[in-house]
Amino acid sequence: MSQQINLYNPRFRKKTNYVTLNALAALAVVTLAGALAFAMVARQRVVVAQAEADKVQRQMNEVEQQQKASASKAPAQKDPQVAVQLAQAEYDNRALQEVSNILEKGELGNTRGYSAYFSAFARSRVQGLWLTGVQIVGAGHEIGLQGRALQAGLLPGYLNGLAHEPVLKGKAFGQLEMNQAGQPAAAAPAASTAAAAAAAGPAVVEFSLQAHQENGAPAKAGAK
């Protein structure tokens, strides 16, 4: 009987080396080519994105310039407060101009004041009689006196004193109103002043005198 001997042993099998230098070189070339291709694609995308960004920026600049141009052409909105101040300034200017015209034309008649009249009233004072109000119109064209007296008989003497004052020359006291304090006034012409004074009782009386220029000159301005 024959005996077979198995001489095959994997350890003695010749091994094949598949990773060669040429294979490594080829793999490196393929990897480099892939990297270059990826870089080119990425760069192309960057260029396209930059172009889009530049386009958007130009559009934004154009819109901004259009807005500035529209704002410069649009009419400015008026401030209500400024308009009110302007109207007030114009009103004040017109008022000052009117006053200036009156002074230039001499329409006030007496621009030197009324101190002479008040001095005359003070010099003509009578004990027991006092003034409570004075009105002087224009250059003294019309004069109104209001006062009180302890007795009505003091009025004739007071009127006589006023008649001798130089500043009151040419003035005629054409109306007298006299009544007891708290009673309605009774009007009487100046010609009957003495008679009215004599008829009045001793009670405190209120009186009102109205004088005017004898030539009837009209009054254009007043002072109190």
Automatic annotation (TrEMBL):
* Annotated coiled-coil segments of the chain: 46-73
Look up the domain of life of the source: Bacteria
Arranged from A to Z, the UniProt key words for this protein are: Coiled coil, Membrane, Transmembrane, Transmembrane helix
Residue intervals passing through the bilayer: 21-42
State what protein this is by name.
Answer: MSHA biogenesis protein MshA
UniProt source species: Pseudoduganella rivuli
